[in-house]
Design brief:
Elements lengths: L2 E3 L2 H18 L5 E6 L3 H11 L3 E9 L5 E9 L4 H5 L3 E9 L3 H11 L5 E10 L11 E10 L3 E3 L7 H12 L4
Parallel strand pairs: 1-8, 2-3, 2-5, 5-6, 6-7
Antiparallel strand pairs: 3-4
Helix pairs in contact: 1-2
Length: 176
């Protein structure tokens, strides 16, 4: 599978674009919920532009070899979730909408707390058949960039950040 590399600068600009989409849409979240581990950095970037607090959840769907398991499971959840989420406008953030299974799982879990509204934001949406679906309670989906079915290499996964930046420049056909 083709790999597509991204720099932190590219990710930041995608986050800025998503924040602009959110503001233009009129959706004003009370809280950002980051799906760990991929959603942590995008959520933090969105906090810069939206000024909202971040809560984190840990969901395991991929094994140690990056193969999907049969179903997602909670690894970490929000303490006092009912108190922090009921009646709130929630923005759920992850890095990529690949199979949509994790996003479906999280949105269903969050809807159980009866938020006022629930929206989703992802840096990347892959153009491919999705195994999961968004439940009716998801009011909006914000996407930084839509891609084909490629392996996305995010900078937070890099062991050598300089090599990551060079690969990203080559992949995107421009200098950094």
């Amino acid at each position: 599978m083709k790999k597509l590399y991204y720099t932190y600068q590219m990710i930041h600009k995608l986050g800025q674009s998503i924040a602009g989409q959110i503001k233009e849409s009129g959706f004003n979240p009370d809280v950002i919920v980051a799906i760990g581990s991929g959603g942590f950095i995008p959520a933090r970037i969105l906090r810069t532009y939206l000024g909202k607090p971040i809560l984190a959840v840990g969901i395991a769907y991929y094994d140690l070899n990056d193969k999907p398991m049969d179903y997602p499971r909670k690894v970490q959840w929000i303490e006092e979730a009912e108190k922090k989420l009921a009646g709130k406008r929630i923005l759920l953030v992850d890095e990529v909408d690949d199979s949509r299974v994790t996003l479906e799982y999280c949105t269903n879990e969050l809807l159980a707390y009866h938020p006022e509204a629930l929206a989703v934001a992802v840096l990347h949406d892959k153009r491919k058949e999705k195994r999961g679906k968004f439940p009716p309670g998801v009011s909006k989906v914000f996407v930084g960039e839509t891609l084909g079915d490629v392996w996305i290499v995010y900078p937070w996964d890099a062991l050598d950040i300089d090599a990551q930046d060079r690969n990203a420049a080559l992949a995107h056909g421009a200098g950094i």
